[in-house]
Amino acid sequence: MRLIAIADLHYDADAHERMRDLARMINREGGDVLVVAGDCCAEGPALLGEVLGHFEDFPGERLMVPGNHDLWEDHPPFSTEQVYRETIPGIASEHGFHCLDRGARIVGDTAFVGVMGWYDYGMCQREAPTDGLTVMPVRVAPGAEGKMSFSALPGVGEMAWEDLTPEHYMANGLVWQSEGAPHVTVWNDAVHLDWRRPDREVAECSADTLREQIASVAGQVRRVVGVTHFVPFTELVSYRIENPTRAFARAYMGSSLLGEALLEAPGLTLAIYGHRHGQEVREVRGVVTADAEISDREGPLALTLPD
Ligand SMILES: [Fe+2]
Predict the structure, then answer these.
(1) Distance from residue 39's CA to the centre of ligand 1 (Å)
(2) Mind giving me the DSSP string for the chain?
(3) Ligand 1 centroid – CA 265 distance (Å)
(4) Cα(94) to centroid of ligand 1, in Å?
(5) In this predicted structure, what is the pLDDT of residue 204?
(6) Quick one: what percent of the chain has pLDDT higher than 70?
(7) Ligand 1: distance of its center to the CA of 287 in Å?
(8) Which of 8, 90, 146, 253 is the most exposed place for a label (fewest CB within 10 A)?
(9) How far is the CA of 222 from the centre of ligand 1 (A)?
């Protein structure tokens, strides 16, 4: 079985020609299954149909999960749950894709289970990016006229990086000083979407959905392929980042709850994911993992599963 996996296209209208050329190449080379592991779009689902529509000549099964950028909206009140559960699967099916978040799909002797997933800050970088760095977490929220609003967390001041907790990451912003100048970094989901429940719950719910899908295909297939947008195993992000902005973003990379759920699948062969932005195929805990970021240098990821 030949799989083509792509992720993190971050498409906007300026990328039309690049997108068209990429899709033509993928359609021409073909495969049994095309997997799109999220973040088709840069800012919300308005162009999702255009992206997926480029693949209508792909000769095999077309599967997708959304990414966080596909859920973005411009202004509150956000309807994130509805965009995730209805808008995106609807656009996918109009363009010949099955959104795995709605249910597993069996192709031959292989079951594809998948969800976008979410983050729970468990992948945060505990070591300071630079020795002795002190930071101040701040709460970020959508402000007037498309701007962001920042507010202090009650009773929370400057602290050592190593003392950051999930409650601080939940606030989505960080301020620090470097070379005498203040720096601010923001996790932008905070101003483009709202689940109306904690991120950890969204990640737990995603893992539960994976378990339900795994149960739904039990005994029917020889192997299982998992697809998530968010990173499913901590090992995949366990490197020290020295840039504070990028180190902060590690908390929002994914959740090990996803990987734990996938590992319960008998015959789990491959875990495809995105969001991390670094195409790579690597074995973790006996499973081949594939970061399917579309790379100008490497092109789309082609994977062959033995027949
Ligand atoms: Fe993403």
Answers:
(1) 5
(2) -EEEEEB---B-GGGHHHHHHHHHHHHHH--SEEEEES--BSSSGGGHHHHHHTTTT--SEEEEE--GGGG--SSSSP-HHHIIIIIHHHHHHHTT-EEGGG--EEETTEEEEEE-----STT---S-SSTT-EEEEEEEEE-GGG-EEEEEPTT---EEGGG--HHHHHTEEEEEEETTEEEEEE-GGGGT---SS-HHHHHHHHHHHHHHHHHHTTTT-SEEEEEESSB--GGGG-S---SHHHHHHGGGSB-HHHHHHHHTSTTEEEEEE-SS---EEEEETTEEEEE-B-BTTTBSEEEE---
(3) 25
(4) 23
(5) 98
(6) 100
(7) 22
(8) 146
(9) 30
Ligand 1 centroid – CA 68 distance (Å): 5
pTM: 0.97
